[in-house]
Design a protein that fits this description.
This protein has eight helices and five strands; from the N terminus they run H-H-H-H-H-E-H-H-H-E-E-E-E. Helices cover about 45% and strands about 25% of the residues. A five-stranded antiparallel beta sheet has the order 1-2-3-4-5. Strand 2 (about 175-195) and strand 3 (about 200-215) form a beta hairpin. The protein has two domains: about 1-90, no CATH class; about 105-260, Nuclear Transport Factor 2, Chain: A. The model is unreliable at about 25-45, about 85-105 and about 105-115 (pLDDT under 50). The protein is elongated. It is α+β, with helices and mostly antiparallel strands.
Length: about 260
Amino acid sequence: MNIIRFMLSCVMVAGLGIAALPIAEAQQGSATDYPSFQVATSEVQTTDAETTERKSAPARPREDLGPGGVLLLLAVLIAATLFYFLKIQRPSLPDFSEPIGQGSSGKRELSRHSSEDRQSLSIDSITSADKAAFQQLLTDVYRAWSKADLQELRQFVTPDMLNYFSAALADNTSQDLRHQVEDVVLGRAEIVEVWVAQETRHASAKLWWSARNYYVSLTKQPGDSGYVVKGSEKKSTESTETWTFTQSSEGTWVLSAIQQAR
């Protein structure tokens, strides 16, 4: 699709360049044939001889670009279009403040959950065992994410979140990057909301955690210059996220959304 848009852009720019040539020639001809209104009025008092001499004088040929000039102009326009296309299409590094992808999937999921008919439950309905499961999921999800292992991620997340992780991993791979989130330590957790929707229980928890959070190059080996692209493989950083968990019919909790804390 990007290639199609690029080709269409080139055709449009080339078409505009071709269409502009007759206009430029017309403007040049107009400037040659009619120098100015003031000059014309100042020379009203001319003799018949001067008029006859002026009419008999051969007209100067107009200078145009010619086929070579047109091709050169089109080549410049297409090269400029190609440069612009590559500049705006080159993916940027993921936002380091949002460890998994860009955080938009979590917002969509939370919005979808909030729009469903649901019944609120007491926060106290979340047991110690539930909280332990949430903490374990934080570690398990980031471990599988760091290995880029979708098969392992599948057992910890909903199908929608698996698609989201898959797209985020593909985006990193296209940039020859891998995102490492290691030594995850949960510092504090707060249950934000609990509810039932379509006979399924959901819970949102705000998590404060730390980890060694960095990006590495897939084209280099550990220890090579430039292997760590962003972040530090030695220093832990702190993050705050709101995770939404969904309980399956078997009673197992899985991750269904992530929203970055603001």
